[in-house]
Amino acid sequence: MPLAEQAGVAQGSTAASAPKVNVILFGATGCGKSSIINMLAGQNIARTSNGARGCTFATTKYSIESDPRMTVNLFDTVGLNEGVGGTVTSPQAIAKLYSLLRDLDDGVNLLIYVVRGRITDSTIVNYRLFYETFCRKKVPLVLLATGVENEDSPDQWLRENLEEYRRAEIDIAADSAACVTPIKGKESNGCYRFQREYDASIPTVRNLIHDRSSIDPWKMERKTWFASILKSLYNLISPLLSGTLAPLAAKLHDEGLNPFEAREVANAVQELIGNEVCTPGVTEKAETVAVKRSRSVMTEKKVSRRIALWPRNRGSSGPA
Fold this sequence. Notes:
It is a single chain. The chain is α/β, with parallel strands linked by helices. The protein folds into 2 domains: 19-212, P-loop containing nucleotide triphosphate hydrolases (Rossmann fold, 3-Layer(aba) Sandwich); 243-295, no CATH class. It is built from 8 helices and 8 strands; from the N terminus they run βαββαβαβαβββαααα. A 6-stranded mixed sheet has the order 2-3-1-4-5-6, with helices on both faces. Helix 2 packs antiparallel against helix 6, helix 2 (90-103) packs parallel to helix 7 and helix 6 (222-237) crosses helix 8 (259-273). One of its GO terms (molecular function) is GTP binding. This is G domain-containing protein. Residues 23-116 form the G domain.
């Protein structure tokens, strides 16, 4: 049931009494996630960057109370990029996902996929990783398209291109997608170039969060999560890996697992994906674990199709 249908939340309710929702933002570096957070907060609380280097799953939490209907906990993740070499370190990815789960003991109410630019392999992998693999298709999903400020009709562009997303197996309902402008653009004579679009984007995103968030957050017990999706996670990202996997248990220990937990998870990887794992001593930090790539046939068909979709943005200042 959507949050909007929750009874007892009256107009003008205070942030203390309003429901709290956990929202995960994901998408490639430079797509506009941080700019969307700053727009919703009404101030610059998240660092923005136009860089294309972002190949780990670092997560930052932002609590925003600017909407009296709800308190929004936004979790800004760094997704899978086709960055330098198109690679990602698997132990870091798994460890950061564990860290995110640990912070979301009360569940996930909504996923927001922020996209900018053409559909690429990483566009599809991010969708599959967060929506299908991580959240098991059990969390509502909203798509926000940025970088469309110079289109004559962004809404028409979105309607036309949602079909292209569906062809790429990114299935988004029309009423769960929107074009947004989370930047004001350059200032000229006291006015910002995209001020009107920026102002219109604030209620658009707030209403999507309010209307699409599930009142019953999705939860999964940690050990069950590892047991059920580690294999699919490995299969999904293994085509993008290069060389031998870095130590896994040490990364898990860095994310807060004690040596027992780190060893348990490392052993789970061994069991699930058939890799050789050397476990650390009981009283030692998990810093000598090595994971070798499996020789078994566990590959994911690499998506080679690339669709050049994006609008004709001449001079548009890109969000981060």
